[in-house]
Amino acid sequence: MKTTMVLAAVLMAIPVAAMAQGVSGTQRMNGQEPKPSVTSQNQNMSHPGEYTTGLTNEQLLPLSVHEAWVQSGRNEDRFFDMVKQLAELSAQKRGLSLPENETAGQKAGDWIKKEARKDPDQLLYVVVDRAVMKVGTRSSPVASR
């Protein structure tokens, strides 16, 4: 799958940044660590059976980088599935195709890692969307609609 290769670097990049940041700003103020939730396959997902996040796009969109990491149960595979899901949504909405090469994946992963470290309270979708814009290429008009 296209996104697997392109976003392989993200798997290694974001969890490290999210773990290094600890608790989100609001939770830091209250001295709380959020509890990871257990996710399971959700029949209402946009792409049923394709992702193991157990979350719909609507549930993923408002999550910060740190919240997504906690929501994944601090599991890299689940977190990577979240990133892939958001990347595919971003590429679809923007009419972009994700290239199938390691260089593009490394570029996206490095950029996401840098941005996630700057502010773990920013939305994960925003970080992923910006990375998709950096590495994505225009799809044919017929394929994107």
Description:
The chain is mostly helical and 145 residues long. The protein has one domain. It has a two-stranded antiparallel sheet. Helix 6 crosses helix 8 and helix 7 runs antiparallel to helix 8. The radius of gyration is 15 Å and the shape is globular. The relative contact order is 0.22. About 28% of the residues have low confidence.
What do the pLDDT scores average to? 73
Strand content: under 5%
- Note the quaternary state here: single chain
End-to-end gap = 20 Å
Structural class, by secondary structure, is mainly alpha
Separate helix tally: 9
Number of domains: 1
Global outline:
globular
Strand order of the largest sheet: 1-2
Query: Which bin fits the share of residues in helices?
Result: 55-70%
Extract low-pLDDT stretches. 9-13, 15-31, 33-50
Query: Whole-number radius of gyration?
Result: 15 Å
Organism: Terriglobus albidus
Keywords: Signal
Region (Disordered): 25-54, 94-113
Biased composition (Polar residues): 37-46
What's this model, at a glance?
Residues 25-54, 94-113 are annotated as: Disordered. This protein has 145 residues and is mostly helical.
Task: Please specify the SSE layout and strand pairing.
Layout: H1 2-6, H2 8-21, H3 25-30, H4 57-60, H5 65-71, H6 76-94, E1 96-97, H7 102-118, H8 124-135, E2 137-138, H9 141-144
Helix pairs in contact: 2-6, 2-7, 6-8, 7-8
